[in-house]
Specification:
The protein has about 325 residues and is mostly beta strands. The chain has 1 helix and 28 strands.
């Protein structure tokens, strides 16, 4: 049976915007970037670390000067919430996904839309670009992930196997593998060239909302609505360890550039910094007044960026 669109959107919304849970102690408030008039759903740094890009429920993307927090420009064109955004490896382009079922490719220097990618039959929840920038991957509420040719906008293949919406996608560092996370509580590893499903990672007890590879590709990290972060062996699918400490849905996870540390954002309004080898919490960053929806490291690993349902982006200093 098909679920009405408004119900699906409410369910998607509930992953990131749960009931108010207050904020945890620990960590100093970072600089806030303000300008969005809706929840911020995705954030990323440019490859040179000089700019930040945010995607919002207000249907826009905003480019920021990372050093000052100044708004550089706004990118408009989506007709519904923008759920995911990433830079191309050279920083010249950006790719976004939206609840309008499309992906869009943008020229960062001008803010001009280059092309739209159409093919999903429901909300696009996550996008990423291959390490060489030639391919794009997208995940959707239609339970598929799709591979695209960036230069032409052509759909190359669809990956099917999840029994529920795909909430997060990622390429391996060499671009040979694709990773997906779903509300079916699983993570799947795929051969990017053929679309073959290689293995399924099981262990989470609720929706898996975020997934990423370690910089060397040997490990996978995931965040879930079961409030945990999990570390997995990419080659075997074996769970290495779980990171516990969040009180609500873990909405976003990422590795530091050297792979030694990890960040997680949560519906409990906090960002946590973890030691990957031991699973111990290093620090909690508190300051957002609503759910944290997205986190990322700067290219040099000395700063963290977080987006939130409080409509702001925050920049945090990380002591190495």
């Amino acid at each position: 049976m098909n679920i009405p669109a408004f119900t699906r959107r409410a369910a998607f919304h509930s992953v990131f915007f749960a009931a108010d849970s207050g904020s945890s102690a620990g960590g100093g408030e970072g600089r806030a970037f303000t300008g969005h008039i809706g929840p911020v759903l995705s954030v990323c740094f440019s490859p040179d670390g000089k700019h930040a890009l945010s995607a919002s429920f207000d249907k826009t993307l905003t480019l920021w000067d990372a050093a000052t927090g100044r708004e550089v420009r706004t990118l408009t064109g989506h007709t519904s919430a923008v759920t995911s955004v990433c830079f191309s490896p050279d920083g010249a382009l950006a790719l976004s996904g939206s609840l309008d079922d499309t992906k869009k490719l943008w020229d960062i220097a001008s803010g001009v839309e280059i092309r739209a990618f159409s093919g999903h039959t429901d909300d696009v929840t996550s996008v990423c670009l291959s390490p060489d920038g030639s391919l794009a991957l997208s995940g959707s509420w239609d339970a598929t992930l799709k591979l695209w040719d960036v230069a032409t906008g052509q759909e190359l293949r669809a990956f099917t196997g999840h029994s529920g919406p795909v909430l997060s996608v990622a390429f391996s560092p060499d671009g040979a593998l694709a990773l997906s996370a779903s509300d079916d509580n699983t993570i799947k590893l795929w051969d990017a060239a053929t679309g073959e499903e290689l293995r399924t990672f099981t262990g989470h007890t609720d929706w898996v909302t975020s997934v990423c590879f370690s910089p060397d590709g040997s490990l996978v990290m995931s965040g879930s609505r079961d409030t945990t972060v999990k570390l997995w062996d990419a080659a075997t699918g074996r769970e290495v360890r779980a990171f516990s400490g969040h009180q609500e849905t873990v909405t976003s996870v990422c590795f530091s550039p050297d792979g030694a540390r990890a960040l997680s954002g949560s519906g409990d309004t906090t960002v946590k910094l973890w030691d990957v080898e031991t699973g111990k919490k290093i620090h909690t960053f508190a300051g957002h007044t609503d759910e944290v929806t997205s986190v990322c490291f700067s290219p040099d690993g000395t700063k963290a960026l977080s987006g939130s349902g409080d409509h702001t982006i925050k920049l945090w200093e990380i002591t190495l």
